[in-house]
Design brief:
The structure holds two protein chains of two kinds. Chain A contains ten helices and eleven strands. In chain A, helix 1 packs antiparallel against helix 5, helix 7 packs parallel to helix 10 and helix 9 packs antiparallel against helix 10. The two termini of chain A are 57 Å apart. Chain A is rod-shaped. In chain A, a hairpin with a 2-residue loop joins strand 3 and strand 4. Helices cover 56% and strands 17% of the residues of chain A. Chain B is of the alpha/beta class. Chain B has seven helices and six strands. In chain B, strands 1, 2, 3, 4, 5 and 6 form a six-stranded mixed sheet that branches. Chain B is globular. The chains are: A alpha+beta, B alpha/beta. Chains A and B meet through strand 8, strand 9, strand 10 and strand 11 of A and helix 4 and helix 7 of B.
Chain lengths: 457, 160
């Protein structure tokens, strides 16, 4: 549940932060605004008070009655008027109103001032009446602060709390829906083991990330299953292949020992036994090699290999195996700089890989012309081997890399079916690609691509 | 001689064989080769608005075609041929002639027996334009070796 809790936490934190900022901003700006508003009201009252008391003292009572009847009453409204004379001390005035000295001094200096003590607001103006100057202060309790703002604050707090609860519930639900497929996949995969490797994950209908995850898993399982089956096949094929020469050896020995025979017959039997044993030996070596290259590609020594030289060497090797070969080496499209012909690899292994391919080309075409071409692309060296032999039937193309597999039309030709898989392993070890194209009874083309070694020397 | 040549292409490796044959015939030529492919621009408003020749070329050119092109360029590196693909969108002969003039193309290399395929449903044939244009046309020929396959193979460059 860890990712779920992470997501829920994250959502919650984002929500809380945002709403706190949001509501905080609303609350404080409205507070400020209402403060300003209230000060202005007080100032107006101070001004009216000043005018009434100082300029029209004779109408004071009448105006006061009017004021009380029509003007809104502020809670605990008080008005103070002080005359500013050089001898009055601002301190005494401040004390009598319960405000700091700075307030009075500000009024005297700049003409207006404001002060707040708890919920009581003071606003003061400097008023000139006749030839005298007065400080007129109006104070009241801020009704709005106590009631309206408090109301706003309560609403915001309630909203935040309900919002948190809502977000919690919503994120629980949402994450559950999202994480559920992952949980399903985990449960299903737990059931897959080497016994029931054919189990596959259900593909959800939608084409989203989980579908692609399930598909990738399924593909991986396919590959695993194939390699398991290949292993099994390998073992059974190997035993079958070994069986044949062994049966032959045992048969020969049995027959030879069944009764006394002439020396010539013994010589013949022993020669056949030797032949079969040598075949067996070659096969075992090839198999060993196949296993080694298949499993561990990093143990070999890799160095610079010139592919054109390699091809010439392979031709020489072929001349020894099939002296009647008609191999044509086509260097028509060779690049001009030898740098583009150097690959990083193991010379012996590449020699073996290429030899296998070319041997196949010569063997299965009964020594008809075989063309080996070489060219360099931007990142690869490309070797193409083309023959006009018996080809590979279309349906069997998918099996050609299986060890010991021999196509249906190879009955007249000798072979173990190990050459091509071995070559492919070697080429894969070199990070290369091999492609086989064939038309039944017309011929086969094998393309080998090996990455350049980027050597500049 | 600093010629600019036009070679019609269908972005198969085999169509590059025309270039290969030409470069074999004239190993000292310093040429610029335009691999031209006739294409129809999309007809819808949004298609036209978002059409990009570079993107279209990128989708038509296969990896094998690029590899084969690099092989050719590496082979004739000392001649430093400039070979690049281009698309022709016009429908008329005069549009084609204009294109030729604009690109400064002096000659064309046309395969005799190989027929260019339609890469895409929007591809068009430009051979008829080439034949009726004022270009000097060189014909090259080869026997399609191991043909009859759809797959684009780099080895086609070698064996033809």
């Amino acid at each position: 549940m860890k990712i779920r809790t992470k997501i829920i936490f994250l959502l919650l934190i984002i929500f809380i932060t945002y709403t706190l900022i949001f509501s905080g901003f609303i609350y404080f700006s409205i507070s400020e605004y209402s403060f300003d508003d209230f000060y202005k009201r007080l100032e107006i009252r101070a001004a009216t008070t000043a005018k009434v008391e100082l300029d029209y003292p004779q109408n004071a009572s009448a105006i006061k009655a009017l004021k009380n009847e029509y003007l809104e009453r502020l809670t605990n409204e008080q008005d103070y008027i002080f005359e500013i004379t050089p001898s009055t001390s601002a301190q005494i005035q401040a004390d009598s109103v319960n405000t700091p000295v700075a307030f009075i001094q500000e009024i005297i200096a700049s003409g207006r001032g404001s002060y707040k003590n708890g919920n009581t607001f003071y606003a003061g103006i400097k008023y000139t009446s006749g030839s005298k100057e007065y400080v007129v202060i109006a104070s009241a309790e801020n009704y709005y602060n106590t009631h309206h703002i408090a109301y706003l604050r309560n609403i915001l707090v309630i909203l935040i709390v309900t919002g948190i609860v809502f977000i919690l519930a919503a994120s629980f639900w949402v994450t559950k829906k999202i994480i559920n497929p992952i949980q399903q996949i985990t449960d299903k995969v737990k059931k897959i083991s080497s016994e029931n490797l054919s189990l596959r994950l259900n593909m959800p209908g939608k084409n989203d990330e989980f579908a692609s995850l399930a598909k990738t898993f399924n593909d991986m399982l396919d590959r695993l299953q194939t390699s398991f089956e290949t292993q099994n096949n390998f073992v059974s094929n190997a035993s079958h292949e070994f069986n044949t020469p062994l049966t032959s050896i045992i048969g020969q020995a049995d027959v030879a020992l069944s009764k006394l025979r002439s020396p010539e017959e013994y010589v013949e039997s022993l020669s056949i036994i030797l032949q079969e044993a040598e075949k067996l030996d070659k096969m075992v070596q090839a198999l060993l090699f196949l296993a080694q290259t298949g499993f561990n590609g990093t143990a070999q020594k890799f160095d610079k290999v010139r592919v054109d030289q390699l091809i010439l060497d392979v031709k020489m090797t072929l001349d020894k195996i099939y002296p009647a070969n008609k191999i044509i080496i086509d260097f028509n499209l060779l690049p001009e700089t030898p740098d583009k012909l150097k690959v990083k690899g193991n010379e012996q292994l590449l020699h073996l890989a290429l030899t296998n391919i070319v041997v196949n080309a010569c063997k299965y075409s009964k020594n008809q012309p075989v063309t080996i071409s070489l060219g360099a692309a931007s990142n690869n060296v490309i070797v193409a081997v083309k023959d006009t032999g018996i080809g590979i039937p279309e349906k069997e193309m998918q099996y050609i890399y299986h060890p010991f597999y021999r196509a249906s039309n190879t009955g007249n030709f000798e072979g173990y079916g190990i050459g091509l898989p071995l070559s492919r392993n070697i080429i894969k070890m070199h990070d290369g690609e091999i492609n086989v194209y064939s038309v039944f009874n017309e011929g086969t083309t094998v393309e080998i691509k090996i990455p350049l070694g980027n050597y500049h020397y | 001689m600093n010629d600019t040549l036009l070679i019609p292409t269908d972005f198969t490796v085999e169509s590059l064989v025309s270039a290969k044959k030409f470069l074999q015939l004239y190993p000292d030529a310093r040429v610029k080769i335009v691999l031209l492919h006739g294409y129809t621009m999309p007809g819808s408003i949004s298609g036209l608005l978002f059409f990009s020749k570079a993107a279209q070329l990128k989708s038509l050119i296969t990896k094998e075609f690029e590899e084969a092109l690099t092989i050719l360029k590496n082979k004739y590196a000392h001649q430093a041929p400039i070979i690049y693909p281009d698309l022709f969108f016009g429908y008329t002969q005069s549009a084609f002639n204009n294109y030729i003039e604009g690109q400064g193309i002096t000659g064309a290399v046309v395969p005799k027996s190989y027929t260019l395929k339609n890469t895409d449903k929007n591809s068009r044939d430009i051979l008829k334009f080439i034949k009726r244009s004022p270009l000097k046309v060189t014909e090259v020929d080869w026997v399609t070796n191991g043909g009859g396959h759809d797959k684009n193979r780099v080895s086609d460059l070698f064996f033809n």
